[in-house]
Amino acid sequence: LFNLFSPSEKPPKSLPPGPSTFPLIGNIIWLTKSFFEIEPTLRALSSKLGPMVTLHIGSRPSIFVFDRSLAHQALVQKGSIFSDRPKALPTAKIMNCNQCSISSGAYGPTWRILRRNLTSEILHPSRIKSYSHARKWVWEILFDSLMTKAKTGESVEVLSHFRHGMFGLLVLMCFGDRLSQEQIEGIEVVARRILLTFDRFNILNFWPSVTKVLLRHKWRELSQLRKDQEEMLIPLIRAREKAKQEMENNESDDHYVLAYVDTLLDLELPSEKRKLNEGEMVTLTSEFLNAGTDTTTTALQWIMANLVKYPDIQNKLWVEIQSVAGDKEEIKEDDLQDMPYLKAVILEGLRRHPPGHFVLPHQATEDTVLGGFKVPKNGTINFMVADMGWDPNVWEDPMAFKPERFLKAGDFNDELFDITGSREIKMTPFGAGRRICPGLGLALLHLEYFVANLIWKFEWKAIDGDSISLEEKQEFTVVMKTPLKAQICPRKKIN
Ligand code: HEM
């Protein structure tokens, strides 16, 4: 144990401080709450106790880190120790097929192969480029539905439009571009039902051997949910396998763009000397669809809400877009790199309203030390994303929406700002280190592309008499408590 510490550093005995609780009751109370519900309590504790706080949730200590340099130490400098995930709860294990997804997988060779497959085969910039036709298709559908509303003068509740577009885009990247709108909608209905009902099964985790008898109907309901997911996705996986074989045998000469599921069908797990089974592919494909839908949709909604709330920022953005686009009908992806203010608006949205207020829970693989406190092997450690992006020592007037803070003398301050946090963490909406969100580049592209086109084609205004409320609530992500409703007017006459 002692050689984990440098000679001058004494091994700390104690965990970071936390509230005193009655051992059993206190621990169970925390188990019944979501992280969003305990966030204000954690903040109050941190202001009294310091930048690291421990809560005993269930049988394990959970450590919460508020300080950005401690987060950098853990996630980046000591990344090899802090990159594991805690054991999933029994209900989660059913949906994530025994932690075979990338986000839930233990830090080790299988996780590494799955993550590398996703990043190098699908999320690599050149591959992302090959899906630009899908983004254009989705934009056209979104544009048509918004235009219909704009023509009738009806106000738009943007959330469902945005979510549907984002989900459709990921479905095409996942299963190929030969799916119809109806098929996409079918997949979305099942995915949404799982996302919205999953929390109802938390109770089953309290004492699984007992609940398996007393609440067996509920367990059956959960198994049915997983079956519904398999029944929806397995036919798509098999259809793609067949299409792939036909293409390889040259029976089809159609234009064929690689999809995520193709890479999973080919993948070998050398450490286990086998290929993936269908259950694992169901888990990995639904992870792909879910990880990128609500997160990006939530960010898009917050950004658009701020552009409605602050018309001068919206106008400044429009002026920039116009200077690049001239009289173009539509903003192309290549145009985006000439729009520094757009990038600043997106970053400010992610800083001020990160879709997740915590990164996913991490776990230490060995006893270690952080901030002078002990972090035990297998202890859970959480990082407070929102608080880091609101740190007044880094960000002046942190709760204000000011994209200009990312610009230096009118230009995007790329040199000084690093969203991956590899040198220093100043905000961390995608996490940092070995578990950093692999979808970061895709998410930023989606946000830039859609925000640019939404602002280019329409003027967004608050509905008369409405003020835009920035109150939050937790769904899967931290969303607007009062979803954005806006009046939209076409910017130019469209034939
Ligand atoms: C604005 C959009 C997004 C945000 C804010 C976001 C944020 C995050 C965060 C905070 C994590 C956890 C990092 C950690 O535990 O340290 C994460 C993990 C992950 N994200 Fe994203 N994400 C977004 C979009 C996407 C997209 C588009 C994809 C893929 C299509 C994606 C795929 C993943 C995966 C697979 C993981 C697990 C990584 C691992 O455990 O190794 N995300 N994301």
From TrEMBL:
UniProt KW Membrane keyword: yes
Main location: membrane
Cofactor(s) named in the record: heme
Compartments, record wording: Membrane
Keywords: Heme, Iron, Membrane, Metal-binding, Monooxygenase, Oxidoreductase, Signal, Transmembrane, Transmembrane helix
InterPro entries referenced in this protein's UniProt entry, alphabetically: Cyt_P450 (IPR001128), Cyt_P450_CS (IPR017972), Cyt_P450_E_grp-I (IPR002401), Cyt_P450_sf (IPR036396), Plant_metabolite_P450s (IPR051103)
Membrane disposition: Single-pass membrane protein
Record-stated family: Belongs to the cytochrome P450 family.
Protein's UniProt name: Cytochrome P450
Source species: Hibiscus sabdariffa (roselle)
